[in-house]
Amino acid sequence: MVRFLTGWLKDVVNNAYSRPYVHKIRDKPVFSLIDAIRKVKEENKNPIIAEYKRASPSGFSADRDPIEYAKEMERSGAVGISVLTEDKFFSGSYDYLFIISHTVKIPVLMKDFVVTERQIDNAYNLGADSILLIVRILTERELESLILYARSYRLEPLVEIFDENELEIALNAGAKIIGVNSRDLLTFTIDQERVKRVLRKIPSNVIRVAESGITSKEQIEELKKYGADAFLIGSSLMKEPSKIKELI
Ligand SMILES: O=P(O)(O)OC[C@@H](O)[C@@H](O)c1c[nH]c2ccccc12
What we know:
This protein is of the alpha/beta class. Helix content is 39%, strand content 15%. It has a single domain (7-19, 28-247), classed as TIM Barrel. It has helices at 7-17, 33-42, 66-75, 94-101, 117-126, 140-152, 164-172, 192-199, 217-225, 235-239, 244-247; strands at residues 48-52, 80-84, 108-111, 130-134, 158-161, 177-181, 207-211, 230-233. Indole-3-glycerol phosphate binds at residues 51, 53, 111, 160, 181, 211-214, 232-236. Pfam families: IGPS. GO terms for molecular function: indole-3-glycerol-phosphate synthase activity; phosphoribosylanthranilate isomerase activity.
């Protein structure tokens, strides 16, 4: 049973329950996203998780070759690649995850609306090193059990929160990587001030990821003052991949 959802979020979660099982045998080791972020920070660079996202319900769209994009992001020093696999609203695909996880040697995050263990089986089989778990679409028991299930594959989830209430839920569930989304998933409005307010309440032993709406180095430097360790960036890099060089 999911939490009470409305609008497109209800539809995207219903769609998640019917995603097929991927019959593939994983053929690569699991890379640690936490270790990769810590290493890039030690090199005094900005850990950027570059997202491969072809569309979103907020009206974004970009057509880029997944292999070329992933190679350019890795070459430019991205700490990891986030790959949208949600097929109905984001034009994502499990194929993109398989292709990209077999193109790069940096951690790959499966970005989807995960509500079932089968989706985590798929992430592991396709070569993902982490998965997104969104507090807003899960009950607390589901969140705790899916975190443990992901860890049984040595996939450490990125647990996404919106506000302080969801921060408490994520911490109680034992999250080790917490992402704060500046975008409201239902209304698509962006609020960076809320992100700063929530970031500063996350304990420093948790890896803190600022997500969405990031387009400049100035924004990154500002978010770092509030405790952000890493930055999840999609639209601005899908539009102009070379921009990553000025953000690292
Ligand atoms: O394109 P942006 O504004 O750089 O945002 C990237 C990423 O944060 C965003 O795509 C995202 C964050 N959380 C999600 C959950 C589902 C789908 C997408 C997302």
